[in-house]
Write a structure and sequence with these properties.
This protein is mostly helical and about 300 residues long. The chain contains 11 helices and 2 strands, in the order αααβαααβααααα. Helices cover about 60% and strands about 0% of the residues. The chain has a two-stranded parallel sheet. Keywords: Membrane, Transmembrane, Transmembrane helix.
């Protein structure tokens, strides 16, 4: 991540540091540059990708869904902005260790295992992190943990792209931990690490954009993750369906989800919200969401 540190410091962070955090008359700096760089880079990726997805991809008819929350987009952005600075502080030690050379990050092919690994590192990263996130995600749904850490992210029954990072900071840290652990266990080329960091953030936005492109049996795409938000205890995987299939938690999206008009029909919504409401009562108890749809506005 020293590549990210150099780029962000050169073009953005140095100006931000001097303006917002003038150097204090102390023997050490706090907040540290690592914390600030983590926050700035994370917020930039989040806002750029989520905003583009929201403008060009997200179906605005979702606003009329009976379980779309009042002022939801604003609430998602607020939650994300609260979470990411805290996550940056928590992950800064990993970032610092990487920059100081304690991990297995390398610069060139000659420094790594070989040319073959330049290609192999990508599927290895995705499979390793998907396995870890699957079990971390299942743990976050444990009844003793869910209401304290993961419930906030499930506030969004019909998420928008801005919901991708709208979670409790410890929830976000738990699910991002495999990304930070990987380069301490396996070799990883530095630019590949940056590319994968951008990709996982892009992917997080994509699986919350509500655009179901294909019913792929291998990829845990937006349709699968939308079912996770509405069915709660299914489709825990981040990238693939394999670990859900092995763990007995896979729920295959139905064909109507890929038919644009059917997906957005009020008749289909009415059928679906009956099950959603049953699960909310079973898992969360009293529903304290304030919904924005004028036809079925619900405040509890």
């Amino acid at each position: 991540m020293d590549v990210v540190l150099e780029v962000v410091d050169t073009f953005i962070a140095d100006y931000a540091y001097s303006y917002f955090h003038p150097k204090p008359p102390a023997p050490y700096d706090f907040p540290s540059p690592s914390n600030s760089t983590d926050t700035i880079f994370g917020l930039l990726v989040y806002f750029i990708v989520a905003t583009l997805s929201y403008i060009f991809i997200f179906d605005k008819r979702t606003f009329d869904h009976p379980r779309f929350i009042k002022n939801q987009v604003r609430l998602e952005i607020i939650a994300a902005n609260k979470a990411m600075p805290v996550m940056a502080i928590i992950t800064a030690p990993f970032f610092l260790l990487e920059v100081r050379g304690y991990g297995k990050l390398y610069d060139t092919t000659e420094d790594g295992p070989g040319l073959w690994y330049n290609f192999f590192q990508f599927p290895l990263f995705l499979l390793f992190t998907d396995f870890c996130i699957y079990w971390a995600h299942r743990w976050l749904h444990h009844r003793l943990v869910y209401k304290y850490l993961h419930k906030l992210h499930h506030k969004w029954i019909m998420p928008t792209p801005f919901a991708s990072h709208a979670f409790h900071p410890l929830d976000g840290f738990t699910q991002s931990l495999p990304y930070h652990i990987f380069p301490f266990i396996f070799p990883l080329q530095k630019m590949a690490y940056v590319a994968l960091f951008v990709f996982v953030n892009l992917w997080s936005v994509m699986i919350h954009d509500g655009e179901y492109l294909t019913n792929n049996p291998v990829v845990n795409g937006a349709a699968c993750h939308s079912l996770h938000h509405s069915r709660f205890e299914v489709n825990y995987g981040q990238f693939f369906t394999g670990f859900d299939r092995m763990g007995g938690t896979y729920l295959m999206p139905e064909q109507w989800m890929f038919e644009r008009n059917m997906k957005m029909s009020e008749g289909r919504w009415k059928k679906e919200i009956e099950k959603v409401d049953e699960l909310i009562e079973e898992i969360e108890g009293k529903d304290n969401r304030t919904y924005g749809s004028s036809s079925t506005k619900k405040t509890q």
